[in-house]
Specification:
The complex is a heterodimer of chains A (about 120) and B (about 100). Chain A contains no helices and 11 strands. In chain A, the strands form 2 sheets. In chain A, strands 2, 4, 5, 6, 9, 10 and 11 form a 7-stranded mixed beta sheet that branches. A 4-stranded antiparallel beta sheet of chain A has the order 1-3-8-7, with no helix packed on it. Chain A has about 120 residues and is mainly β. In chain B, strands 2, 4, 5, 6, 9, 10 and 11 form a 7-stranded mixed beta sheet that branches. Chain B has a 4-stranded antiparallel beta sheet with strand order 1-3-8-7, with no helix packed on it. Classes of the chains: A mainly beta (about 120), B mainly beta (about 100). The interface between A and B is medium-sized, with 19 and 23 residues.
Chain lengths: ~120, ~100
């Protein structure tokens, strides 16, 4: 059974870079059918798709976040990562890592990790 | 940019009721419209993909329809575990969610 687990700091200062890692177990990220991505949810609010990466290295980003987002793969560790630069309080959210089988069809999710942006 | 508008934003219903949630896209993109269910404190769960295909393991009381810019999620007979928030998604854009509550 595929499992995804987010890890990273729960508190980030304004203007700094948020960095999260997703560790995949029970399956390999080296699969050209899948995309690996990030989705976030501010407390009490709706979902926002951030971006994803294909095992080939091709990336896809939400236009509203594209200038600040980088998603990358580390196939040797079966992990993928998110970097979001120049964060503000508006970036406070639960961040989910997820597996997408194409057309944004997200069938596996991590449990989510809350990241708070505050000084 | 694609914008997704869901309606209603909240809905009260009883066990056994038939409910319908709609989702409208700001532009016609594709029919790769997904529906998710999210229970409090949990990650979303994929229910429907490509507008009308039922994800494996999802009860058959859930169904989806639509094309172009207008899509619908229908729950034929509400069960207690169905009271949750539902989101549509087209490409990178999610709807704002519909909270389904017990009447």
């Amino acid at each position: 059974q595929l499992q995804l687990q987010e890890s990273g700091p729960g508190l980030v200062k304004p203007s700094e870079t948020l960095s999260l890692t997703c560790t995949v177990s029970g399956g390999s990220i080296n699969n050209n059918r899948y995309y690996w991505g990030w989705i976030r949810q501010p407390p009490g609010k709706g979902l926002e798709w951030i971006g994803s990466i294909h095992y080939s290295g091709r990336t896809y980003y939400n236009p509203s976040l594209k200038s600040r987002v980088t998603v990358s793969l580390d196939t040797s560790k079966n992990q993928f990562s998110l970097k979001l630069s120049s964060v503000t309080a508006a970036d406070t959210a639960v961040y989910y890592c997820a597996k997408d089988i194409g057309n944004y069809q997200t069938d596996y999710w991590g449990q989510g990790t809350l990241v708070t942006v505050s000084s | 940019d694609i914008q997704m508008t869901q309606s209603p934003s909240s809905l009260s219903a009883s066990v056994g009721d038939r409910v319908t949630i709609t989702c409208r896209a700001s532009q016609s993109s594709s029919n790769y419209l997904n529906w998710y269910q999210q229970r409090p404190g949990k990650a979303p769960n994929l229910l429907i993909y490509a507008a009308s295909s039922l994800q494996g393991g999802v009860p058959s009381r859930f169904s989806g329809s639509g094309s172009g810019t207008d899509f619908t999620l229908t729950i034929s007979s509400l069960q207690p575990e169905d009271f949750a928030t539902y989101y549509c998604q087209l490409s990178y854009a999610f709807g704002q969610g519909t909270k389904l509550e017990i009447k």
